């Protein structure tokens, strides 16, 4: 036995030192997903929708880039660079086909903390206001972007280190309620940071614990200094943006191309500000000079990395978690898979490479991803097409945005966060599915509001793990075997001797975020496992019973999935008597199993369900109301299957 192990170890070691050409190609395809999808790109079917989606995405990238650069306390032109380089890098290394990487509100807000702390506004007058630096910008602006670039660089290094350590497999501990609460709380922080621009108030930068409340206290103390012109323009912009976007959503099926209201508003506001000279007449703050072109690359200042490590960790964790949630949602919606570890590499390299081109930290944004959905994007080519139009703006159109009011950019930021802010509606869902998840959402949101997004994320993860650890001991005594499967094959009297296969699976474990993914994988493998088609069949009293013991710990199943026999009909009975407790992730996975089986023409019936489980599943998913799926016992479910079989048999005879 020792010799066999030594021989196997020697073979692995020799394979590492003498890699074959196929191994290198396979590694490149795994780490460079563009090599996988680009050679198979269908120009005829995909180029037109990708081009249209890319143009619409470019509009969002430009407007959000300008806005999020202001949010990050740097010059707006650096937001344009942040909309270009990260998108290119992610298209090469990323696996999300509908993930648009670029500037992001949450990472911009985090990097602003470092910028304002290291290069505060009050030293602007002490710096040299020369135009001899990069792109003709002042030394003050260049000092600020170097700090933001350092945050981006170090955040990317942390993400790449997490890729090397294979920590992507541990992301299952970040549950949907935690992500929802953290992003909602961070979006609330972003809206609060824009209040001074919406009202036209000059106020110092306020951050730190309870900074959210200090900002509103300052606003109410200085309410008399609100600039009426900025307030009216902000309200008008918000009303126009919300109204037109709602109309686009209502009529998106009838119109092929939605109205780019963000771009129209920017052009209209800039033209109106230029004609009325609002900057000098009313004292309205405008974007100012936007230089043309892209500067030559320059390394971020390594001397300040130790000073921005807190913000870098926040950018790495918050940006990755928010982006991964969008990538997983995209993969689930369009039926493809992503590698959590590869996403660490893709976003890490996006931040590292972009930091050399004066870019602020990047991540995927919900609004841009939703835009790719609605415009029918097929592949990452849409993001590459958007980069072409962003380049046109950088080299040709940028200087025309001098007169754009900053309060309009703030309005675009606030309306763009609508998708995150309306996650408050999830509270009703969590309350009906699992009240503990509801409590986790509330507490995570409160911690995010009182402290910061990274603190709220950490608290939510720790709280979730602690609660599950506290709930598991009382449930583990109920089960000796984690999963068992019994198969029954019945020869029916119908024509062509159709096989009726009933699978009864008893799960005697809690179903929570820790084991939901493995539960789904094991169940799909059971359904797809090939059954012996030529095996002699007998009555149900002489059925073949096959027991499968499988751990429900999180991970991937190594069992090879085979296609079932084409002439078999399946019914799947899940015995839920062992579901001592469940959370939101478990219920969502159970509903996903039901929907996937329904797509495979597999009838799913659930037995011994508690009233809370039935209520949670009915509330969460669009279950088939015509067919009963919940039964008091396994025997009642089997009786229902036989009744349906006899009914279909009678219907066939009546048709004859």
From TrEMBL:
<dbReference type="GO" id="GO:0016324">
    <property type="term" value="C:apical plasma membrane"/>
</dbReference>
<dbReference type="GO" id="GO:1905039">
    <property type="term" value="P:carboxylic acid transmembrane transport"/>
</dbReference>
<dbReference type="GO" id="GO:0019532">
    <property type="term" value="P:oxalate transport"/>
</dbReference>
<dbReference type="GO" id="GO:0015705">
    <property type="term" value="P:iodide transport"/>
</dbReference>
<feature type="transmembrane region" description="Helical">
    <location>
        <begin position="348"/>
        <end position="367"/>
    </location>
</feature>
<dbReference type="Pfam" id="PF00916">
    <property type="entry name" value="Sulfate_transp"/>
</dbReference>
<dbReference type="InterPro" id="IPR011547">
    <property type="entry name" value="SLC26A/SulP_dom"/>
</dbReference>
<keyword id="KW-0967">Endosome</keyword>
<dbReference type="GO" id="GO:0005254">
    <property type="term" value="F:chloride channel activity"/>
</dbReference>
<dbReference type="InterPro" id="IPR001902">
    <property type="entry name" value="SLC26A/SulP_fam"/>
</dbReference>
<dbReference type="GO" id="GO:0055038">
    <property type="term" value="C:recycling endosome membrane"/>
</dbReference>
<feature type="transmembrane region" description="Helical">
    <location>
        <begin position="379"/>
        <end position="397"/>
    </location>
</feature>
<dbReference type="Pfam" id="PF01740">
    <property type="entry name" value="STAS"/>
</dbReference>
<dbReference type="GO" id="GO:1902358">
    <property type="term" value="P:sulfate transmembrane transport"/>
</dbReference>
<keyword id="KW-1133">Transmembrane helix</keyword>
<dbReference type="InterPro" id="IPR002645">
    <property type="entry name" value="STAS_dom"/>
</dbReference>
<feature type="transmembrane region" description="Helical">
    <location>
        <begin position="442"/>
        <end position="469"/>
    </location>
</feature>
<dbReference type="InterPro" id="IPR036513">
    <property type="entry name" value="STAS_dom_sf"/>
</dbReference>
<feature type="transmembrane region" description="Helical">
    <location>
        <begin position="147"/>
        <end position="165"/>
    </location>
</feature>
<feature type="transmembrane region" description="Helical">
    <location>
        <begin position="304"/>
        <end position="327"/>
    </location>
</feature>
<protein>
    <recommendedName>
        <fullName>Anion exchange transporter</fullName>
    </recommendedName>
</protein>
<feature type="transmembrane region" description="Helical">
    <location>
        <begin position="257"/>
        <end position="277"/>
    </location>
</feature>
<keyword id="KW-0039">Anion exchange</keyword>
<feature type="transmembrane region" description="Helical">
    <location>
        <begin position="402"/>
        <end position="422"/>
    </location>
</feature>
<dbReference type="GO" id="GO:0140900">
    <property type="term" value="F:chloride:bicarbonate antiporter activity"/>
</dbReference>
<keyword id="KW-1003">Cell membrane</keyword>
<keyword id="KW-0812">Transmembrane</keyword>
<dbReference type="GO" id="GO:0016328">
    <property type="term" value="C:lateral plasma membrane"/>
</dbReference>
<feature type="transmembrane region" description="Helical">
    <location>
        <begin position="203"/>
        <end position="220"/>
    </location>
</feature>
<comment type="similarity">
    <text>Belongs to the SLC26A/SulP transporter (TC 2.A.53) family.</text>
</comment>
<feature type="domain" description="STAS">
    <location>
        <begin position="492"/>
        <end position="641"/>
    </location>
</feature>
<keyword id="KW-0472">Membrane</keyword>
<dbReference type="GO" id="GO:0016323">
    <property type="term" value="C:basolateral plasma membrane"/>
</dbReference>
<keyword id="KW-0813">Transport</keyword>
<feature type="transmembrane region" description="Helical">
    <location>
        <begin position="226"/>
        <end position="245"/>
    </location>
</feature>
<keyword id="KW-0406">Ion transport</keyword>
């Amino acid at each position: 036995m020792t010799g066999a192990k030594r021989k196997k170890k020697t073979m692995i070691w020799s394979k590492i030192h003498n890699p074959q050409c196929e191994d290198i190609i396979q590694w490149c395809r795994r780490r460079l997903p563009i090599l996988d999808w680009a050679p198979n790109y269908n120009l005829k079917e995909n180029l037109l929708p990708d081009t249209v989606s890319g143009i619409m995405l470019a509009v969002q990238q430009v407007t959000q880039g300008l806005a999020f650069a202001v949010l990050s306390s740097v010059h707006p032109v650096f937001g344009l660079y942040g909309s270009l380089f990260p998108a290119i890098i992610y298209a090469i290394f990323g696996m999300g086909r509908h993930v648009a990487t670029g500037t992001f509100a949450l990472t911009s807000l985090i990097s602003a903390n470092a910028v304002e702390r290291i290069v505060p506004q009050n030293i602007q007058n002490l710096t040299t206001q020369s135009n001899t630096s990069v792109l003709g910008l002042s030394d003050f602006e260049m000092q600020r972007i170097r700090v933001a670039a350092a945050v981006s660089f170090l955040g990317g290094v942390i993400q790449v280190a997490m890729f090397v350590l294979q920590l992507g497999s541990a992301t299952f501990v970040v549950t949907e309620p935690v992500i929802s609460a953290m992003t909602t709380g961070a979006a609330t922080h972003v809206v609060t940071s824009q209040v001074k621009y919406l009202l036209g108030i000059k106020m110092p930068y306020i951050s730190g614990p309870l900074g959210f409340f200090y900002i509103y206290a300052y606003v109410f103390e200085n309410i008399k200094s609100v600039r009426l012109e900025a307030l009216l323009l902000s309200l008008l912009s918000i009303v126009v943006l919300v109204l037109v976007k709602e109309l686009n959503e209502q009529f998106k099926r009838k119109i092929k191309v939605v109205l780019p209201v963000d771009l129209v508003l920017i052009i209209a506001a800039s033209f109106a500000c230029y004609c009325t000279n609002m900057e000098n007449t009313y004292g309205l703050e405008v974007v100012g000079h936007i230089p043309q072109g892209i500067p030559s690359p320059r390394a971020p200042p390594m001397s300040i990395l130790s000073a921005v490590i807190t913000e870098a960790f926040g950018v790495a964790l918050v940006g990755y978690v928010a982006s991964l949630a969008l990538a997983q949602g995209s993969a689930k919606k369009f039926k493809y898979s992503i590698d959590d570890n590869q996403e660490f590499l893709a976003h890490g390299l996006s931040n590292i490479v972009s930091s050399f081109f004066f870019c602020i930290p990047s991540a995927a944004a919900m609004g841009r991803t939703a835009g790719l959905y609605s415009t029918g994007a097929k592949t990452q080519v849409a993001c590459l097409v958007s980069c072409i139009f962003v380049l046109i703006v950088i080299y040709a159109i940028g200087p025309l945005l001098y007169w754009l009011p900053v309060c309009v950019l703030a309005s675009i930021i606030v309306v763009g966060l609508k998708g995150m802010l309306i996650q408050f509606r999830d509270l009703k869902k969590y309350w009906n599915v699992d009240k503990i998840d509801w409590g986790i959402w509330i507490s995570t949101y409160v911690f995010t509001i009182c402290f910061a997004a990274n603190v709220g994320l950490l608290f939510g993860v720790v709280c979730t793990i602690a609660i599950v650890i506290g709930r598991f001991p009382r449930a583990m005594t109920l089960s000796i075997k984690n999963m068992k499967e019994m198969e029954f094959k019945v020869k029916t009297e119908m024509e062509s001797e159709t096989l009726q296969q009933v699978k009864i699976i008893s799960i005697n474990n809690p179903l929570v975020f820790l084991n939901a993914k493995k539960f789904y994988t094991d169940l799909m493998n059971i359904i797809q496992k090939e059954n012996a088609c030529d095996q002699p069949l007998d009555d149900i009293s002489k059925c073949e019973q096959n027991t499968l013991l499988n751990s429900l710990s999180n991970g991937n199943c190594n069992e090879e999935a085979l296609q079932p026999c084409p002439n078999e009909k399946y019914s799947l009975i899940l015995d839920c008597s062992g579901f001592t407790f469940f959370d939101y992730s478990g219920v969502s996975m159970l509903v996903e199993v039901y929907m996937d089986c329904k797509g495979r023409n597999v009838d799913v019936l659930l037995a011994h369900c508690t009233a809370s489980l039935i209520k949670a599943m009915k509330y969460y998913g669009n279950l088939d109301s015509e067919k009963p799926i919940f039964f008091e016992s396994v025997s009642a479910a089997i009786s229902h299957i036989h009744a349906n079989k006899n009914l279909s048999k009678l219907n066939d005879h009546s048709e004859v």
